[in-house]
Design a protein that fits this description.
This protein has five helices and five strands; from the N terminus they run ααβαββαβαβ. With 199 residues, the chain is α+β, with helices and mostly antiparallel strands. It is rod-shaped and about 170 Å long. The protein starts with 29 loop residues before the first helix and ends with a strand.
Length: 199
């Protein structure tokens, strides 16, 4: 029988108590990561919607500036680029034929169709004359028997109106024709040739 060997191992330490500590909070859990992913997706969707809205607005403005009917593509594009709305298109005023009695019949005999004249009105007792129509075109100068065919008031054989003076037909706008009629009813009219057409 072998002799017993004494136990030389050191004795284990005495047990000690655990000191108190705050509860642990674990970061980076699955729920937290899921919330961060959802927030990132929402931001990406909002940015995408904003970009899409801007693209649609730009394409709409470009189409209205280049293809708007009646305004012209160049004017519309310039208005969009400069931020200024295009001015409304102005239609040419409708012109009418106005028969005007001029006080000096000799001056009317010098006129021809195509001449451009200024019509001046003068009233009795008023030393200041005023221009009623400026740079208007002579459309016709009735002579002898032409007055009846055109429906103008009667004239003498030399084209002089029976009421005094002579008639001349002018191509003017409606407002100018009304002004000429009023000026002729209240005073005397004279013409000054601004451009003679002798071609």
């Amino acid at each position: 029988m072998l002799p017993s060997v004494p136990d030389t191992r050191p004795a284990p330490p005495a047990p000690r108590g655990v000191p108190p500590f705050d509860p642990l909070r674990v970061r980076g859990s699955r729920a937290g990561r899921l919330r961060r992913v959802i927030r990132g997706q929402r931001r990406a969707m909002a940015a995408g919607l904003a970009l899409a809205s801007a693209a649609l607005a730009a394409s709409g403005l470009g189409a209205s500036g280049t293809a708007a009917p009646g305004t012209g593509g160049t004017a519309g594009a310039a208005a969009v680029a400069g931020g200024v709305p295009p001015a409304p298109e102005r239609r040419p005023a409708r012109r009418v034929s106005a028969a005007v009695r001029i006080a000096d019949a000799a001056t009317v005999r010098l006129l021809r169709a195509g001449d451009r004249v200024d019509v001046i009105a003068a009233q009795d007792g008023d030393p200041v004359a005023r221009v009623v129509a400026k740079d208007v075109q002579v459309e016709d100068v009735p002579r002898a028997t032409e007055d009846v065919a055109h429906g103008y008031p009667g004239t003498d054989g030399d084209g002089t109106a029976a009421e005094g003076g002579a008639l001349v037909v002018l191509s003017v706008e409606r407002d100018t024709a009304a002004a000429l009629a009023g000026a002729g009813a209240s005073g005397r009219l004279a013409v000054v040739v601004s451009h003679a057409d002798r071609n």
